[in-house]
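[Solved] Which block belongs to which protein?

Original post:
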Amino acid sequence: MADASERSSLAKCSDAVADHGTFGSDEAQGLSDEEAARRLAEDGPNELDGTASESFLSILITQMKNVIFLLTLCAACVSYAMGDGVKAAVLVGIVVFVCGINAIGEYSAQDAGAELRKQMARAPVTAVRAGREAEIEVRQLVVGDIVKVHMGDMVPADMVILHSVDLQTNEAVLTGEPHEKAKSSKPGKKDDDESFKSNMLYSGTSVVSGSGKGEIVATGMHTQVGLIAKRLKSTDTTANINPLQQSINYLGQVIGGICVVIIVVATAVSFATGYQNPMDPCADDDDVCLLMSSASRGLIMAVSIIPHGLPFVVMVMLRVGSQEMAVRHAVVTRRTAVDYLGATSVICTDKTGTLTLGKMTAQAAIGLCRAPSSEEAAESHLEFYPLKGLSPNGGMFEASKLTPEARKRMDTKFCMRERRQTFAEPGLPDVSAPVGDEADELSARMARAHLVMGFLNCYGTKLARAEDSDEWFTTGNMTEAAIKVAAAKGGLWDDEAADLQANLERQLDLEVPFTSGRKMMATIHALPSDGLAAGMRFPAGTSHFAVLKGAPDRILPHLSAVLAASAEGELQAAGAEMSEEERGVVKQKNSDLAARALRSLLVAICPLDSGEMDHLRSRAGAGSAEERLQALLGSSKLCFLTLWGIFDPPRSQVPLSVQECHGAGIRVVMITGDQRETAMAIAQQCNIIEKDVDPLTRSAVCKELQTAAPVVDKSVSRSLSKQATEILDSSPMADWKRTTSADSERKKREAFYSNEETAVREPSLTRQLSIHEEKTPKSKHEPQYLPVEEIAELASRVNVWARAQPTDKVALVESLIHEGHVTAMTGDGVNDAPALKQADAGIAMGISGTAVAKNASDLILMDDDFATIVAAVREGRRIYSNTQKYVTFNLCVKAAECNCLMAAILFSVPMPIRGLQLLLNLVVTHILPPLCLAWERPEDYVMKVPPRKIKGDIVVSRVMWLFRWLPFVICMPLCVMACLALGVWSATGYFNGNDLIGSSRFNAVEDGLAACEIAGMLNSDGKFIDDAAPFHCVCFSRAGGNPFAEPTKIEQWGRNLGDDAPIDGFNRWTGSTGDFFEKANTPYKDGPSSLLESCSDRRGIKRWCWKDKAGEDRLRPWLPSSHNCAAYGAQMGQSMSYVSIHFGEILTLLTFRTDSPCVFNLCTNLVYTGFFLFNICMLVTFVYFRPVAQAIGLTPLCPMRLFIALGFAILLACLNELVKVVYRMRMTASNDILAKEALRRSLGRQKIPEPNP
């Protein structure tokens, strides 16, 4: 195990080998058919496992894990039990509709593994079986099979390379980096720093050049792509509840507790005060009726406080947010992504294609030219700008003159649709197209030489524009594409350079092609008779010249000359011998480019005379290319021309977007498969690493996450040939040393695990994340990771991770989530899919993303731009902020209505809203109009505060409770109850509910104790039984509802009307019955004593009793219970209070839409305007459309009463605006504190978010 402890993981298969083979070292024989069949039966087919989709029922159950839904269903049961079937049906319908829509959406977006299996489907391959080559189905391949691969093939399994010829593969499926990687049977010098070894081929990668033969060491789920498939297997998501749902559930629990308190308190208070509904009272001594009606009121109040529409409104908000994101080029595949993005505290992002353009671009061209009177060559440093991917629209400028201000002006002027714009300005000439006398003559000549020679050498790459769009694309090598685009900025185009190419004719038969071994190429061109090419004068006798392009470390040692300038300023090719100091300058410039994350490419020219050309021609043909190359490298005239600086530039908006993330308290972490130095340089350019911070302290290689003790699987090693074993055993061991800052921690950890007493504790530390799962014999090849605490420590301080494998990304994302962060992950390749699925919000690239990544994601960026992620976060925060407003508004109006009902009980006044009115108000005011908040603009501070706290969050902040909710639940009951009291008093002269109900006491009206008198009879026990309606009422009505008008006395006496008898002369607007109930027209024309007499109940109280004890109740001369002046007056007052509530709440919504004064936002939300008009129409319908008004118990209001009701509603809105002044002051102070907190969090100085103020 000592040796094993120094090895890299068998995730790369290089340590899965021991010293036993099964068929000797003769690779020509391969496996026998019997042995292959046995291994296939033992290991299974070479294919990825399927994934089990989550059932629709389990998703539906997840949707039902909503406390508000449960409370709503309970409310529906209560409503049904109380006889309100309509309300019960509406509440159940809301629950079923919202749950069904959400469940269908979640069910339809599953199984990224299916896309991976589809992508891995391959044609049969050539394998050696029983001494012969045969076409074998990929799923039939087994460990030990010898397989041949050629350019264009997809590697069928993980293989160790036995032989190769110029073999290169693209491992983007595993690393996410699109660069070609050279492969051979010999291990590479840099394999210690590589995630995947150069002497291995990996399943799912593609062969881009050359050919090779390898022996399979892993198949199916045991391959590297199998590890990805394993992580993509569906897990039980029924326990996963998004942050907003968690907050709503917690809020629901609080509301549930409040409902219980309300039921108990309201029932007790109502019973203790003997509260009666004037329009439906109980008998005076009927305690059972009183208790039941009290409990009913308590239940109604409890039901009324539940925000039934919250899930529906949240669903609409999330879906509207999804649509808004689509407008901003972000397509939501799972609706919860909107919420997760709003709560995101860490964004883990890939580098290539997300932070950068994903297209190689030439940024710099450095040359040397010796002046006539100088012994050392002067440096020529030219840079290209603007850098917009493959767009040729740009120029070439002297680096010293290209200031940040000039770059900004160019960015502003740049137009993607233009092929070429003029960016030169006074003091900043474009040296590729000089303007007047401002351009330095030498710089212009150098620029021409750089561009022409690069253009000639990159003949195999073409630049063109798509016919159906403004997008530019290239065919050929990505590095050459950068030079070809740079040449186009200087006016060199394939379709316009025919004369140039004809004058400098390429000698095809003498070309030296590029190979992974050479790392360079050369083209030979004819020189015109005047000895001039690309503005350079070649030495006398030169008939041709060679252009060499390749890795600086391969060409630089052979350089022997530099350019020189004549006295006339003409460039002379190989005009001076290169000194060691000049060679050192080139080396230093190469290092400087690497430090800036630029990939360097050196171009040299070599003048050739006729003798040298004859020598080259004698070695023409592909077989002698190496000899021709050595001849060129050995020339004493090999002249340095250009050191190109090429890179994948950051997108222009990324630095500002990252800065915006920091301001919002969001930490940005780069996870890339690229090398560490490049990642650090890009991170600094993108502001991911602060300028004043040592990048080494904020960056790491992903190997630091893994332990140094992989397990050797003997069962696999015995299946390999001795040759494969020897090749793998010759691989260099991984260097597990960390950066200097982490050495001491590493040593402590190694000492801890090497100690026999403490080593047994490791499993308990590492079994908390999915990457720490127990290894089975078939999963021992997977990487072994550090304990969760150590991963968390690294993840908390490192912002840049290099050389990442797919499981490394999963480890980091899972660790961040484990530490309490809401984590978003971006990616485009198959290698990113497991982390995308593991993250709270997986974000895939729409342009460069694979189907696997898209299917595993929650959000797809259609423009592959990091700035779009920030826009999506802003949208998510806007949705949450508007959800906060909705919840605050809803709880305000619910609690205020509940307070109104409680006030009515305490002060014994009629209920301001009741029955079906509550349901209609719920739908037309509480549920539908607040949907307008989904389209409300975000507040200015939404991206200047840290992410919200998830645990214990009940959506509404403390500031909102104190300065929005509390004032409203006080102000609204005051306004509504004042409107109710004024309305009832102006119609009846009374406002106390008991007075309006009336009394059975003898002469109660005459004595001024009540508005109505009620008769009854004594039963055999002496208990007085009240009639269902009064026989006499006296009211004092003010004309037109004017409270300042003189009161008019209205006296009404009962008549024998029977059931549903019409009332002649009844006026719905005033409640007047004319002379229909005048005493002279009733049985009481001779006085009440003709029909009634006084009697005493068992308590000795004198009451009105009927003389005719045997009469039927329905024939008694009563007043109608709903149309007597007291009852109808109470109904008119209650109609005024309903109007005040209805209109007041829609105006209140206007004040809740934004934190700024509502007068500035009257017409900024057309959806609100539409709902406002809709509410006005509904209010008019409820009050003035007779069938509806009668059904819900409202009366039409005369202009004065309507004016008063609307006036109290407007007063409520004005009070809200006054309170909002204080609220804004508190929010400003709170946001100033939070802005500083956000910046601290984004810089990694705090791990766990603190509670919101």
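(Second protein starts here: sequence line, then its structure tokens.)
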Amino acid sequence: RPSTTPGPRHALDHPPTMIRALVVALAAARAAAAASEHVAYGFDTPDMFVEFGQTLPIPPELQRPTGSATQTVVPGPDGGTALRFDWEFKWTDFVGLLYFQTGNITGFRGCTDKSQLRLRYRVPTPVTGSMLPPREDQSGFGDRPGEGDPWQPMMVFGLYDAKDCQLGDLCFTQDWAAVGPGGLEVYTANFDAFADDSSEWRELRLGICGGYQIKNPWLLAPELGAQHGNLVLDVGEVTGVTIGVTTDPRQKAFARGAVEFADLTCIEPDEPVDPCAVDSRKDPAVRAAHEFMPDIALDKARAYDRRSGAEQVCWEMCAADPRCLYWMLDTLFVSAHVNSELNGCWFYDAIGEGTVGAKPTTPPGRIVESYWSRDPTKRGAICDVCACSEVAGGRAADCAGRDLATVPAFDDVTLISLDLSDNPRLTLIGPEAFRGLEVSLERLVLPGSLEHLSPEALSGLEDVDIEAEAGGNAIREKDGKFFDVCCSKGETVAGLTYCDLRPSTPTTTDFTSARMDQASYEARFGDLPVLDLLTRESPVFAEAAESVDKCVVYCHRDPECFAFAYSTFTTFQGRCFMYGAAPAPDAPAPSVFDTTTDYVGGLPPRARAAAGDRVMAEPDEVVLEEANGYAGSFDVFLGGEPLRGAVWVTPTVDDASLDVTFDPPGPLVFYNASERQRVAVSVQGVMTGATPTVSFDVIACDVAFGLAPAIVRLIVRAPPRKSSSSNNKAKRLRKQLVIAAIVVACVLGVVGMAWLFFAGRKFARRKAKLEADRAVQVVQQVATASDRVKEFQAHLHVVRGDAFLALPALKSHEELRDCIETYDTLQSVHHAAMSKNILFVFISHQWLGWHEPDPDGVHIASMKQAVRSVAADADVEASTIRVWVDVASIPQMNRSEQRLAINSLPTFASTCDYFVVVAPDCTHADTGKPCDARTYRSRAWCRAEIMSCWARNGTNDMYVSTNAGLRPLAANDAVLKEALDVFHGELTCCRLGHPGAQPCDREALMLPMLGLYAQLYAKRNGGNGESNYADIVDIKDTLYPKTCRYCYKPDQGPEVTEDITLFGDLVQAMELAVDLGSAADNDPLKTRAVPDFEPGTNAQPHAHHLRVIGPHGSGHATKAGSFASSSFGSIVSRSLSKSARSLSDDKSQGTAAARRLALGVTIADQVADSSSSTSRRLSRRGSSGASRGASFASQATDARPADKRLNRANTWRASAPHITTDDV
């Protein structure tokens, strides 16, 4: 079969290295196996028949001679001889083949016990004259990219199998007359013989395995060989050999070359090998990376690329293309020329909706095969593309909503649960997709968009709990409905039943027929009225006489036709009889079919429906009356077996005025006549009698079942009428009841209105108090967050660079006090940087042990190298560098100072000039698990340090030190956004279950991260801040979550989990504070209503857990503590209560306005203390900052009793710190 090689941009254009490696490997394997060999043909005499392009009976005016060849005996390998062919030819009008063939070979008779063939050959000189015309002159095979790529001449190797040849002596000649009906079977194999012109002797080794499947080393040529044989390569019966050369059909100039053949040998290795798997043309590693998907074809219009080439070229192309996840080969196997429409490969990066279809079965010789790539690199490791979490017994992978186009790889991962839901592009799952999970997997959630699930994908997962939505080609038995009504129930794998979609054309297969002789025909059809007789000579509808199927079609189209018969008798062959009635049910059955059969007769769908092949219902009448509550039921079933597919039935009623309901409402799904389904019917609000009719909407693959479905008649009887006297009594009673109900309702209404009035006033007062309390807490938290990032909370301890480089190992803070410099304020750091040219380097890393940061000294080496790289980048001496690293810069003995320093990490990280992550590939000393850049990024504190530096400085001067050296930290946006997601990182406190109900570290990080966000928001309209804010604006709800999960594990009793407040509405509150700070006095923002913001966490111990967990471990989780449980909340509550009591005693200020005024003053007093410290710190930045601080304090206390607008909004505007760009 002719084939192509890809263009210069593909790896196959230079395969000599690969081929030589294969030759060496095969030679070594042959020597080791000490295989038995038999030479079938030695190429020792120049007696091969040379045919240059006139192999087929084509007129000379259509196929001119295309070339010539000479034969010469030359020295061969191992001291033997070889047969050399010097050739030249070109492709002309129809074919471009040059054959060297011989016949009457008897050597293959000794190959009956062999399983492999080996051809030794070499290309002594390179091919010349084979270059194609310029690109613009090439016609190509189509308008898709790559279809015009040139390919070098190919070698065609053919064997002639004479086992079933019926041509006598012609079976053993070189004449092409032996090929054709009744002749030889022709098996061929293509290979790139001329791709390697190193002039070295090479081998082509193929297993003795032939057939139509593309996986066979030898392919049966359907347009050449006989079709009557056993279609199996019988090597002992081979009588002829052909070795040909074919070239690109666009090649118009002569191509010249030479090839030498040494011998053709049959081999049987000592160790048995599957012959169908032996093929030296194919790379086993590439084939192993793709999995065959049987019985399906892919829509060519959805492919992103198409290339012309043979099957082995498709493998290589897809393997080399990172986008290729699926591919399909479609070729019409014609060994004489290339079919431009079919021959080629189609490549897909995703399988969209409607891409998967049934494999075509025509024309003969057409090969359509689909594959999917199992390459782990393309699929991605499961824990890299999905979220993996540790669970008992292994891991759970959450792949929901990941926009997957294929199933990820599971190498070396023990998964308990896998969730693939919400991936609309994942519409196809191929065989072996879940290989490796057969032992561990317990739960599998499949995507709802799935259109095709290969049964082989679930092999070994029979005990797995599989969650799959109804539809596609696989359903649960209870779902009962496939995506296609023509699906019959097929095999069942892992609890899912698969669609058996039998390809057929409606109205041409939905008939029953039987073959019968003349006597049987006359007994069944002899007395029927003939409606029409159509022959091939009929003036109209003569087409009906061409075949049985066409006879059925014409009978089905005629509404009066109820039976047909088609004559196959020699004398009357091609007659279509159509009858106006069907044979009687008791007519004699046809005799057993044999070679004397004369007729094919049967019933069209119309007659089948009349005979009972339709939707049935029992009983045909259902009475609905007051005695049975106007409810009844009927059974629906099929009167016969569908010839294909299913029948979907939906009950409907013809009277729209009645409130009729069906349970189930439908569609009811039937696959055979043994299934019966009961439908409950009921009517509501019956006032008069009626007789509606229930009909059935039918969708059926078998046409007969949709023609005449049964109907059910409903008899709805009106309720009985009562006597006049009883009616009058009932009316009086109803009137009295109505009057009593009205009186009771009025009384209850008055009482209810009074209660609502007092309850509403009480609620309004309580709501106003709670809103004021919440406003005070929000103001305090916003001010505190802003202060947290403006100044250190602890001393900044750093190690001199030269002293750090001299350290043999990481040492603690207490051990390095002589080498440590201490900075008290942020201003002192800036002063040292400006006056002494000191560079501050922040080194972040993950501890490699529970108690020691670097037990094996892996990180200290990377840290030193990072310091040297920073010195080289900044062109300074190591002595001018100051290094911050956690174990040396944070006190380890004094826990109070240690906690303050840890809480200052974000401020420390954002202050330094360089930020370096040290994360080489290594192993945790205590857990034995790998530690690298990925595990570093999973830690919340590490992410907080990255966020702190990035928020102020961007990604400039942020690096990571791995085994590959120092490189920028954020290689792409995905890595950066993962590193900035602080509050979804891992924390040790969560792993330990928060002993003593201590607050989560996420709560401690909340205020510093809020302060950093204030800086990002304030600088969002200029400089680096604009791009930084743009990076997080779409994901800020994820980066700053309102709540988080808190898990408490007591010493005894069950684990308690709850959702606690984290940021609340502080992000929106901070944005409003920044906007107020930059707004003009007349800005409408300052008069707009302020939302009721929810405060964030107060980072206090969750003491309610300690209260509810008893000595025996019993208890339950309660809601998080109220605002008043915090220390600040207690102060505010006591102050507010005291103000309320004083106001209640003073009747002169008893109005609501006076109470709101006092509430606002009290709140302002509580905020003034914190705002005064803020004002002092701002005064160091300049007079403008001081004036704002003074304004903040004065606004909080400047209240007027006459101001009736003093409420929550005024409290916020008077108290909230107005954050501006100057403050930042």
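Accepted answer:
You had them paired correctly. Confirming on the second one: The radius of gyration is 43 Å.
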